[in-house]
Amino acid sequence: MILTGPEIEAAVHDGRLRIAPFTADQVNPNSYNVRLGPTLITYTDEVLDAHRPNPTRETIIGPGGHVLQPDELYLGHTLEEVGSDTFVPLLFGRSSVGRLGLFVEITAPIGDIGFHGQWTLMLTPTRPLRVYAGMKIGQIMFFVSTGPIDLYRGKYQAATGPQSSAYWRDVTKLRAVAS
């Protein structure tokens, strides 16, 4: 089951769902609009390596916005911190942003129960596109789970700002176990 707009508001008010800052006018019939935070990061190496940390460059989106270029991956973040120990969140781009040719998530729209923090956005434009900090960029839907809940305790917990891939940490753990 998916939460309706009124149930999202009720869950925020009774603590089952955390959205900070919360603004009632961002509630949709069955989702909550999230806004683009001010920080973008891009990878600086031509070839990325899944087995090690990859260097990044940070850009702060100014008042005039920032032009995203095709063939580049931009890691952005939600302005809002979103999380729940009760519901399963899913993040999607807003259709109006998609109609401008911007992919907001590449392959990871599902959040874990127990994650609380700003969501990292994987922004990829099909053509040059100027974006602005604070613009409504995505929407999060919340689903009711069934069964015992094992809360998220992963490497991205309490994220603030965009997070580059930490896949290499998993590889490092596997190497340590194999040794």
From TrEMBL:
InterPro entries: dCTP_deaminase, dUTPase-like_sf, dUTPase_trimeric
Pfam families found in the cross-reference section: DCD
Top EC group: hydrolase
Enzyme Commission number: 3.5.4.13
Keywords for the protein's UniProt record, in alphabetical order: Hydrolase, Nucleotide metabolism
Molecular function GO labels: dCTP deaminase activity
Lineage: superkingdom: Bacteria
CDD domains: trimeric_dUTPase (cd07557)
PANTHER family assigned to the protein according to its UniProt record, in alphabetical order: DCTP DEAMINASE
NCBIfam families recorded: dCTP_deam
Stated name of the protein: dCTP deaminase
Native source species: Streptomyces prasinus
Gene designation per UniProt: dcd
